[in-house]
Amino acid sequence: MLRFVVRRLLWAVPMVLIVTFLVYVALRVGTNPLASYLRVNQRASAKKIQQYIETNGLYEGFGGYLRGYFQWLQGFVTFDWPRSIKGSREVWPEFRDAMMNTLRLGLTATGIGILIGLSLGVFVALKPGGLRDTTVNTGAFVAISTPPYVSALILQLVFAVYWNRWFGSSLLPTSGVYPPGNRGFDLFLMIKHMVLPVTVVVIQIVAVYTRYMRASLLEVLNSEYMRTARSKGISERRVLVRHALRNALIPIVTVAAIDIGAILGGLIITERIFSYPGLGDFFLGAYDNGDFPQMMPWMFFFTLVVIFFNLVADVSYAVLDPRIRLGR
Amino acid sequence: MTENVLSLRDFRVTFPTLFGDVQAVRGVDLDVRAGEILGVVGESGSGKSVTFLGVMGLLPKSARISGSATVGDTELVGASSRIMREVRGRRVAMIFQDPLSALNPTHRIGDQIVEMIQAHNKVSTKAAMSRAIELLAEVGIPQPAERARQYPHEFSGGMRQRVMIAMAIANDPEVLIADEPTTALDVTVQAQILEILQRIQSELNAAVVLITHDLGVVARVADRVQGMYAGRVVERGSVESVYDHPSHPYTRGLLQSLPTVGRERLQPIPGAPPNMMDPPSGCAFRVRCPHAIERCADEMPSLLPVGDVESACWRADELSKVVGA
Amino acid sequence: MDADNTSSDAAVGLTAESLSPGRMAFRRFVRHRGALVSSIILGTMILFVILAPFTARYGVNEAVFKTSIENPNQFLSPRGIAWLGTDDIGRDLYSRLIYGLRVSIFIGLAAAFFGTVLGVTIGAIAGLRGGWIDDVLMRVTDLFLAFPFLVTLLVLRSVMSSVSWLEPFVGKPTSIRFVIVLFVLFGWMGVARLMRGQVLALKEREFVEAARALGAGPVRIVVRHLLPNAIGPILVALTFAVSSAIIGEATLGFFGYGPQPGAGSTSLGKLVGGAKGALLPGYWWLVVFPCVLLVLSTLCVNFIGDGLRDATDPKLDGTR
Predict the structure, then answer these.
(1) Concatenated DSSP letters of B181-225
(2) Are strands B175-179 and B207-212 parallel, antiparallel or unpaired?
(3) For residue A64, how far is the Cα from the chain centroid?
(4) Residue B22: its chain C contacts at CB < 8 A?
């Protein structure tokens, strides 16, 4: 077991390096940091340009990319991050604040969403084929087919714009973490600002997990060991909890760990619409400016997250399913 | 005559499907006597498994069940879930065909047997576990204490089936229903499992219903045999008399399709089992029967005594006189 | 697969003699009411889109009438001359939706088709050849699929638009061709995984063994034996690829990275993107109608995909 985890961890290191190098090349080609720099500093002298190339490792050719990558990596791990092109600002403080905001939004939404989604999935899987099943299934389908910005637009239209017209003030704010001009920490205001973005993300997560849970539980319910469990004369409740739910949740844990990317994808879009200063907003802002020094840490961080959760998926499956734990 | 521990009267099971109603079991009468081994034989799809799953209430909820099924004095058709729970695992226990999928892959073997014991007895988990280990030893599993801590996938097919048997006999049931218990196993392992079943049966004096398509298995261990075709019982009697004087053309066909020393050619039964959404009128076997007459299409024959056996065939009298097979 | 269904299936004698597989699949599809209704709605939409010159009341960029100070044509709410209202420069939203949907459906179909072809090819190669090709492919697709799709799309997009020698092939970043190529490059991975799984499962089956024993080459085995057996899941994946391409275009369009189909055209993405500006002033029709059309069309495609999945899955006969 321990050997399995260690082996996966050792595998993860070259994976991170290879993937981030590919990302590095893609961003170097795609954003062309030197061009972005020249756009902002149009009157930079040849000497200054040369200096910029060297401090940032913007060498050309495959060997140049490789050298530049390791130069960047060294700076990254020693927290000597290159400054942003636009405004020449420190990247880390902004990145850290954005990460905190995203974590707050993401964890809240994921927690609520998974809880509701799994319960709904169980609720329908126990009575498949009826009106209840059809309603929830159709609802989940509509939610999956609705991109987050569409639900966000509709929610904003109803709870902010038209609420204001009908009742004189809008029910919920549509942007930011605090109203403009607010200083300091205010829990109530923060929650109020989070309601709409969290709702948007929750809708997506609920739809996905309802379907996962329904499918997984139905498969378990149709398996032969459920029949054996019933043939023992134990209570239906015990059959469902001990035999069905437990086994149905095993694949869900794995899927949840792999799915982290999709959840983050929904977050990025949601943050943008609500001008919520999180990682999504950070990335899109950097993308629009072609700001390589801002994008690269972001991509590195996401690669780490994605590979880490892939690892978690593998390990959790091995821990939860005895067939794999002691199998080979 | 000994008492009947399990009796079915006009037992019927119907499945509604997308394409119409499937009449899987169409009026089965059957008695299981205390302490006997009853073999139930038929091709796949003859309704033999469905009958007993229906009795135990283990079919999908969509299945429609009618008629009567009694264990002792307890009626099971339409019984409350409380009554069904008392019967299942305590008075009637089941052994399934494929022990790998019938055992929960994420629970330890010992825990699965403990669950069976505690479902019907108020005992501590510790006491139940030592009883479970005893049971594992009883069905011939070496090092039962260690094996109890393992998972189903760590067992071989034969060992898993022993586990199923150990679980089934945990509460000294009156009836043990074994649904194709040896079909998924090697021939050598089959013999061992049958031996264990026989030994257990004589020790506990439980009745055993042995559902199988293998006439050889029935000949080896059963006392009585029932042949089923298209959801009905077509012939029943003691193993010797049915094997020596089969009076129903279907049973005759089954016996003739068995390899025997001295027989030059096997004679398979022509055709395929009928579509149970729309079974043939009268006797369902008539479309494949070499002896069919007009009456077979008009009236459904019921079980009537012919010599030592009971047979559901209009021409059973004539056929039993012909020395065939 | 549970024994109940197999045994009852066997009991039914649900064999080729009772109903052909095609007919059974059709019946299962029709049983899926969502899929049936969706087919009708989507069929109507496609008819409207094909017949755009007749069904649209105005041209794409035509104003409903000439504007004047006392009689402005901008932001008119839904009324007789403009059923679904007008936009910021007085164009008829209803007509623009028809033209926009036309482009979006085209992008969806083209991206899904080419993406599926690419995915099937790569998946078949990986499945048949195995070895390191297979390992690399699966690792790469794992990570690709794990990243947030908008990020992947945007990075791919910037790389594709920066490499100058690619332009003759992929077109300008604002062209429809560019978006289709982008979605093809992004969309083949799911299908490749699926096809690989199918190939691995079917590879060991007897009929493939038999074909190989008879000396059939790998291409022949794939085309004649594996593809027909995997066609069900591939068709389902293709359908879902259409809806994700439509949503993808709309997402890019919404954030301003989408295609600019030129003077004669528009797309759902542009129309949904236009909703942003209409939100605060409260021009609800510019928000609601494009959003509803986007959701309705993707919902219909998804439902049809679900229906196809049921239709190609005989497991479901026993239930209901």
Answers:
(1) TTTTS-HHHHHHHHHHHHHHHHHHT-EEEEEES-HHHHHHH-SEE
(2) parallel
(3) 32
(4) 8, 11-12
Task: Report the distance separating Cα A231 and Cα C217, nearest Å.
Answer: 51
User: How far is C125 from chain A, CA to nearest CA, in Å?
Assistant: 23
- Of A29-43, A228-242, A246-260, C52-66, which one has max mean pLDDT? A228-242
Side chain identity, residue A208: V
Closest to B287 (Cα-Cα) out of B270, B308, B310: B270
DSSP string across B238-305: EHHHHHHS--SHHHHHHHHTS--TT--S--PPPS----TTSPPSS-TTGGG-TT--HHHHHS----EE
What is d(CA C140, CA A39) in angstroms, rounded to the nearest whole number?
35
Which ipTM was obtained for this model?
0.87
Tokens of A65: 């990319």
Q: Tell me, yes or no, if A283 comes closer than 8 A to chain C by beta carbon.
A: yes
What is the residue-averaged pLDDT of chain B?
88
Instruction: Tell me which chains share at least 3 CB pairs under 8 Å with chain A.
Output: B, C
- The answer to whether A166 contacts chain C (CB < 8 Å) is no
Q: Which two tokens stand for residue B82?
A: 């409380």
Give partners of C (≥3 CB pairs < 8 A).
A, B
User: Which element (helix H / strand E) includes B94?
Assistant: strand B92-95
Q: 219-238 in B: which are within 8 Å (CB) of C?
A: 231
Instruction: Determine which of A133, A227, A228, A241 to mutate to test the interface with B (most B C-beta atoms within 10 Å).
Output: A228
Q: Is the dihedral of CA A156, C261, C45, A140 positive or negative?
A: negative
Pairwise CA distance, residues C197 & A126, whole Å: 30
Q: Is the pLDDT of residue C5 over 50?
A: no
Report the alpha-carbon distance of residue B250 to residue B296 in Å, rounded. 14
Asked if C165 reaches chain A (Cβ–Cβ under 8 Å), the answer is no
List the 272-301 stretch of C: residues with Cβ below 8 A of A.
272, 275-276, 279-280, 282, 284, 287-288, 291, 294-295, 298-299
| Cα distances (Å, whole numbers) of residue A264 to A17, A105, A278, C94 | 22, 11, 11, 35
Cβ-nearest to C142 among A222, A269, A310: A310
Helix or strand (DSSP H, E) at B25: strand B20-33
Give pTM, 2 decimals.
0.84
Q: What is the pLDDT of residues C95-107, one digit of tens each?
A: 999 999 999 999 9
Among B86, B51, B152, C6, smallest CA distance to A225 is for: B152
Beta carbons of B103 and B163 less than 8 angstroms apart: yes
Residues 112-171 of C with CB under 8 A from B: none
What is the per-residue pLDDT across B253-303, written as a single tens digit (0 to 9) for each?
Answer: 888 777 766 666 677 788 888 888 888 888 888 888 888 888 888 888 888
* Burial zone of B261 (CB within 10 Å; 0-12 exposed, 13-18 middle, 19+ buried): exposed
Among A223, A231, A242, beta carbon nearest to B88: A231
Note whether B275 and B293 are within 8 A (CB). Answer: no
Pairwise CA distance, residues B193 & C200, whole Å: 36
Distance between CA atoms of residues C185 and C119, nearest Å: 9
Query: Is the distance from CB of B8 to CB of B28 less than 8 angstroms?
Result: yes
Report the distance separating Cα C320 and Cα A164, nearest Å: 48
A237 CB within 8 Å of a chain B CB: no
- Using a CB-CB cut-off of 8 Å, the residues of chain C touching B274 are 13
Which pair of structure tokens corresponds to residue B159?
């060992």
CB contact under 8 A, B22 and C12: yes
* Contact map slice: A 306-325 vs C, CB within 8 A: 306-307, 309-310
Q: Are A268 and A279 in contact (CB under 8 A)?
A: yes
Residue B65, helix vs strand vs coil:
strand
